[in-house]
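re: ur question from earlier - yeah i can do the single chain one, its not a big deal. heres the input i used so u can compare w yours
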Amino acid sequence: MEDTLCPIDANFANQISALLNPPSPLQEYFDNLISTRECRGIKVNQNGEHGKGLYADLDFKEGELVLKDQILVGAQHCSNKIDCLVCSFCFRFIGSVELQIGRKLYLQDQGVSVNHGSDMETFKHIPKDCCGTDSSDGEDNTHMNNHDSLEKCASSSSKERFPLPREVLESLMNGELVFPYSKEFPLPTVVRCAGGCGEVYYCSKSCAEADWELSHCLLCTGESSGSLCREALLKFIQHANETNDIFLLAAKVISSTILKYRKLKVAHLKERERCATPKVADHYDIFLLLEAWKPISMGHKRRWWDCVALPDDVDSSDEAAFRMQLRELAFTSLQLLKAAIFGKECEPLFSLEIYGHIIGMFELNNLDLVVASPVEDYFLYIDDLPYPEKQEAEKITLPFLDALGDDYSVCCQGTAFFPLQSCINHSCCPNAKAFKREEDRDGQATIIALKPICKGEEVTISYVDEDLPFEERQALLADYGFKCKCLKCLGEEP
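and the output i got, formated as tokens:
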């Protein structure tokens, strides 16, 4: 069935095998990568039991920063896009506190999602020169606009929820209504996608350009899209949003590899012309493709449908059928993506084997992408004001806090692959943890020492809540494809 399901797997078996075998000079690759990161005193070494691991190359004190790792590829969860407007490249919150709140309440009031470009509707109410740093403090009277409408909506308890008039939400988004003290929480200006898709936004022109060059130019659904078929791309995105948004991450990997390959190909052809090297007849160069693929080749991979742990509600007798359903779901997604961005010179990337391994890489290596919300910080700031100032500010802010309810503090959430963080092995008694400090306001992974780490010691984190009972920890770790044998587990195992 596999051969008939995806003929590319059979036609390019050798190339696919080469892509799935990690290149041998791992040490040089990771040494170069570490030199570009905000970190010192760490090293990636081969680990016979776990493949590779991250080791301390000097002593770390408790609470000291061990690693700050940039995202190789990541995406905000589709279900989180109503709650948070963030840069699609670095995942910083953008616009203003007012825009974050007004947009969220507006979309909730309309009963729509932002999965299919409906965010364009909210941005009709935002000036093109909208800048998140134009907020005002309590000394400015502009926050008094719409004060009468707000007083009608005010309540004495933040647990009650009161809808706000649409015109109030629009005035919040377009900058007419400004919160007191919001200039204490400035956010970067909203930068729209140059391709005109209305689905992604950025914190700066540099982030917009970097994302466009990295992968978005092929995945943009706007007028300037470089995809083969915008309609096919929209179908792929819709299918991913309705089934599993991990497919969007896989698409980013394939798109970025294609674009890197094309750049390498151009440079290779220029060099060949300069040296008068005879032309090679192959329609693609596997060596250039391997080079473009190298960052992804370093990640631990298995086929997605093989590595997913069997859900509790699926009987073991139905396991084969369950895994086949996942495989067919991936194949459907792949066919939609192929119709949208297929490149003949990179045909092996569109094999089901490669697609399954890319998705499996995220399943086995992902670290949750989390960025704290400035909206939560803002309301906490108001709550901590001295009484007279707090009372006056809450005349404006309390109706919005009531409308948001318990969801006022929702953070940006997504999935990402971090090349160095993915090298850190698990332990139920770890010496480090992923922890966002006050200054960490983007999507980068931040690893902090939980206790002193000596030079030469392996850096470990816990993939699960290490305080859970032994059986629960082992069940959760099955999702990562291994059984933990750390000292804690060996001591607790029945």
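The radius of gyration is 25 Å. not sure if urs matches, ping me
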